[in-house]
């Protein structure tokens, strides 16, 4: 018999009753039921219940053991009685009656109680004892999912004729929008290597060297603040390059690979290929972001021409100075959301560096209210309602600022409003992919050294 295990902790079933087996794993839970000990034994694959009777010589050893101790158990597989079957456990129909037990590694009291997925340990404690935190089921499954996703990505890329190449980690500086991490050279004193922010230079060298299709699950090291979708310091990305390929061919490969991956590993629906293509200028104008959440139906409208002619001098002046005025129509919220709700939306703008957020609300009684309404004539209000499709019960929010600031703040406002509406308006359980195309190009002005648009998208 194998010295550690004949089976994994998720393998045994009712058909194995009567077999002598050996299992190894961590003591996940320990319960004393009238002098009989029940141990939930856990390994990478699952759980099996172990029964230890008081007549066994190792009973006291198990009784005093701390959770997360590693043990090897040899015993007979027994069927559970009908009233003790656990339908939520793959091995819930059986238990193993221990005849032999070896304490492979006795644990001290752990600073993290592994069975409690919702424990309130501080992040510092969880990171310091990461090896314990990763034993928890949800995090453990996340790491496995990551491995499966990477494997699936590789399989798809190989099937499409791509070759995987590994590019250098120590290299020269090649900025990609963040600061480099630098590594001092022992041999060349006073000089430094940079960790790559992306394998950009090397994959392009591979292309000009004659390799037709490249991919890499590439580490990218960027000295930037943490984001919701990437860790501080490093993240991995699927990096690809193709020779003699059109933009449409590249899009088709990505749509197929990414679409298949999300369809395989998620229960949410994905929009079918080809994905919508949105010009950068339109994305910034309508969504205030170059990575818009299309599940949020709110859209900004350019109202600069209207306010250039309207009688509200503050907005007219903004347009005359090259700024933008945008309007965001939110349907059916007047009478649903309170005045405090509207005030909080403006407060959020000020917290993020904006000067304020104007709005006009149309009550169900037919009255137009708000700090801007009094500055517009009756004819202008009628024109405004027709321009945006406003109806009783709707509110129209305004953002007026220089172009870049207007786009930045308007993107935050769009998300903030959707996040805090009483009636959630976002599409549920779906992914909505798109392409952002026609990006502006930047270059350095040779006289001033400033970064400028080589073509202005606005």
User: What is the CATH class of the largest domain?
Assistant: Alpha Beta
Shape: extended
Compute the number of structural domains: 3
CATH architecture of the largest domain: 2-Layer Sandwich
Which residues sit in consecutive blocks of at least 5 with pLDDT less than 50? 454-458
What is the number of helical segments per DSSP (H or I, 4+ residues)? 12
CATH-level-4 superfamily name of the largest domain = GAD-like domain
- Approximately how much beta-strand content do the residues carry? 25-35%
Radius of gyration over C-alpha positions, nearest whole angstrom: 31 Å
Walk me through what this model shows.
The longest helix has 23 residues. The C terminus is likely disordered. Helix content is about 30%, strand content about 25%. Helix 10 packs across helix 12. Strands 1-2-3-5-4 form a five-stranded mixed β-barrel. Strands 13-14-17-15-16 form a five-stranded antiparallel sheet. It is extended, with a radius of gyration of 31 Å. It starts with 19 loop residues before the first strand and ends in a 5-residue tail after the last strand. It has about 450 residues and is an alpha+beta fold. It folds into three domains: about 90 residues, Beta Barrel (OB fold (Dihydrolipoamide Acetyltransferase, E2P)); about 130 residues, BirA Bifunctional Protein, domain 2, CATH 3.30.930.10; about 130 residues, Gyrase A, domain 2 (2-Layer Sandwich), CATH 3.30.1360. The chain is built from twelve helices and 21 strands.
């Amino acid at each position: 018999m194998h010295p550690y295990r004949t089976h994994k902790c998720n393998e045994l079933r009712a058909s194995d009753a009567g077999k002598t087996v050996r299992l190894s794993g961590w003591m996940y839970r320990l319960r004393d039921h009238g002098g009989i000990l029940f141990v939930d034994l856990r390994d990478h694959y699952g759980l099996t219940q172990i029964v230890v009777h008081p007549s066994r010589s190792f009973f006291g050893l198990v009784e005093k053991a701390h959770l997360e101790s590693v043990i090897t158990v040899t015993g007979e597989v027994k069927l559970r009685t009908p009233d003790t079957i656990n339908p939520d456990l793959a091995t819930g129909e059986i238990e193993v009656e221990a005849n032999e037990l070896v304490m492979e590694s006795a644990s001290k009291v752990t600073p993290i109680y592994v069975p409690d997925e919702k424990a309130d340990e501080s992040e510092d404690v969880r990171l310091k004892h990461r090896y314990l935190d990763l034993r928890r089921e949800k995090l453990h499954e996340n790491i496995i999912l990551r491995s499966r996703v990477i494997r699936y990505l590789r399989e798809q890329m190989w099937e499409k004729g791509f070759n995987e190449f590994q590019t250098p980690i120590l290299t020269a500086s090649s900025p990609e929008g963040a600061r480099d991490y630098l590594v001092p050279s022992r041999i060349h004193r006073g000089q430094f290597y940079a960790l790559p922010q992306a394998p950009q230079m090397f994959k392009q060298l591979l292309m000009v060297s004659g390799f037709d299709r490249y991919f890499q699950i590439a580490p990218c090291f960027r000295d930037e603040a943490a984001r919701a979708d990437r860790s501080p310091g490093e993240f991995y990305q699927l990096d690809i390059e193709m020779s003699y390929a059109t933009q449409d061919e590249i899009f088709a490969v990505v749509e197929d690979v990414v679409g298949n991956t999300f369809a395989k590993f998620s229960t949410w629906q994905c929009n079918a290929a080809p994905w919508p293509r949105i010009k950068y200028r339109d994305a910034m104008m309508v969504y205030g972001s170059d990575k818009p959440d299309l599940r949020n139906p709110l859209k900004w409208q350019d109202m600069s021409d209207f306010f250039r002619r309207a009688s509200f001098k503050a907005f007219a002046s903004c347009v005359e100075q090259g700024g933008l005025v945008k309007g965001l129509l939110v349907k059916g919220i007047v009478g649903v959301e309170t005045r405090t709700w509207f005030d909080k939306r403006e407060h959020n703008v000020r917290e993020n560096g904006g000067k304020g957020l104007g709005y006009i609300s149309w009550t169900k009684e037919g009255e137009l209210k708000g700090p801007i309404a009094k500055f517009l004539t009756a004819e202008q209000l009628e024109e405004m309602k027709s321009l945006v499709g406003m109806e009783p019960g709707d509110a129209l929010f305004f953002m007026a600022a220089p172009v870049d600031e207007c786009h930045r703040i308007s993107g935050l406002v769009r998300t903030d409003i959707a996040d805090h509406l009483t009636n959630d308006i976002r599409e549920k359980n779906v992914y909505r992919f798109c392409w952002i195309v026609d990006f502006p190009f930047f270059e350095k002005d040779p006289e001033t050294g400033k970064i400028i648009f080589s073509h202005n998208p606005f």
